[in-house]
From TrEMBL:
Family note: Belongs to the peptidase S54 family.
A Pfam cross-reference name: EF-hand_7
Domain EF-hand stretches: 47-82, 86-121
Lineage of source species: Eukaryota, Metazoa, Ecdysozoa, Arthropoda, Hexapoda
Main subcellular location: membrane
Protein species of origin: Chironomus riparius
Localization per Swiss-Prot or TrEMBL: Membrane
Name of the molecule in the record: EF-hand domain-containing protein
InterPro entries linked to this entry: EF-hand-dom_pair (IPR011992), EF_Hand_1_Ca_BS (IPR018247), EF_hand_dom (IPR002048), Peptidase_S54_rhomboid_dom (IPR022764), Rhomboid-like_sf (IPR035952), Rhomboid_IM_Serine_Proteases (IPR051739)
Ranges where the record places region Disordered: 1-48
Cited SUPFAM superfamilies: EF-hand, Rhomboid-like
Amino acid sequence: MSVQFTQQQQVVQINVDPHDEEDDTQRLQSPGARVPLDRMTSREERNERSRVKRIFDKYDRDRNGFLSKKELGRLIKENPGQCQDLPKGIAKEILKYADIDGDGQLDFEEFYKLSQEHKWIVRDFCVKYCRYVVPRRDGAIHDETASGYSVGSAYETVDGAYENQMKFFPPPLTMVIFSIIEVIFFIVDIVYLNDYKETDFKNVGTSVNGPMATMFIYNPRKREEAWRFVTYMFVHVGVMHILMNLIVQIFLGTALELVHCWWRVALVYLSGVLAGSMGTSIANPRIYLAGASGGVYALITAHIATIIMNWQEMEYAFLQLFVFLVFCGTDIGFSVYRHITDPFDRVGYMAHLCGGIAGLLVGIGVLRNLNVRPYEKKLWWLAITLYSALMISGICFHIFNPDYFMFEKTNPTPSESGFP
C-alpha cells in the first residue's frame, strides 16, 4: 500500500497494490508503516488494546460491534486536527484497505490491526495532513501532535485549538439579522418624520416620536409593557449612535458565532439587553432608554468569558484579555465621569455596566468550553447562580415595589444605551 500526499491538488491517494501481499516481516521493516506488536510487553499490548477499544466504541454509534464507512469518516473528521478540508472518499479507501473479510465494515480486530500499522488513524493523521497539505486559514503552523493526545481526548493545552474550532457554515448571520432589523426601524422613523430632509447630519434620526420608537423604546411610564425591556435595542437616537453599535456588534458577534453557534450568541446578546434596561430602570426610574449597547457590552464581556474558559486553548489569550479589559474599563469609567460632570449627558452608563456583567456571567454559562477543568465547573455554577439571582431580584423589585417608580410627568429624554 502506498499513501501519496499531493500538496498542489490537496488530495490523498491510497492505492492498494494486489502484489503488496509480502510477508509480515518485510512490511514491518517499512519506515513508519507499523509498530511491531512483538516488541510490546503483554501489559503494554493490553493497555494499547484498551485504548483503541475506547476509540472504537466511541465511534461505533449503533453499537453493532462494527465501524461502517460513515462511522470511520466521522472518526477521521473529528480527529484533533479538526481539518475541514479533507478530500472526499478517504474513509472509503481506508475501509477498502483494512476490511480483511470484505464485509464492508471493520470489526475491532481489523480496526486494531489498522491502528497499529498506521497510527495516524487514531492519533495524528488529520493534524499532519492539515499541516503539510492543507494551508491553515491563519497561515500559522502548530505541531499539535507534540502534545501526545489522541482521538477522544480534548484539546488539552494546545495553543490555537480554540481558533481551529471556527466554522464558516452555516454562515454567522445572527448579528447581521439583528442589525438589519435595527436599521429598518431607524429608517422607518426617519421617513415618517421626514428627518432625511434635515440639513444637519447630526440631527438626523434623533427624534423619538416616530412610530417605531414610540412603540418599542423603553418608556419608564409603560413598564407594564414588558417587551420594552428588550425591544428598546431596536431604537437608536442619531446616525452615529446606530452606526457605532452596528459596527461593534457585527464584528464581535460574528467572531463569537464562528465558534459558539448562533443561539449562544443570541442568548448572550439578549441577556445583556435585558440586564441593561433592568439595571437602568432600578438605578434611575425616570430614564427613557434607546439603543443596543447593553447587548454590545454583553458581547464584549462574553469575549472575556470565553478567554477565561479557554485560556490554554487560545492563542495570545493574555493579550486579548488585556485589550478587552482596558476597553471596557476605559469606556465605562469615562461614561460614569461624563455622567457626573455633564448635566446634559445622555449616555446610559448603567446599561453599559449591567450589560457587561450579564455578558460575562451568561458567557461563562452558555459559551463553549473546549476542555472543562474542575475549577471551571465551579465557576460555571457560580456564574449561572449569580445571574439568575440578579435577574430574579430585579424582576421581583419591579413587581413588588410599584411606588418606587411613581414620578411626575416629564418630557421624554431618552438615554442612549450606546456610543454617543
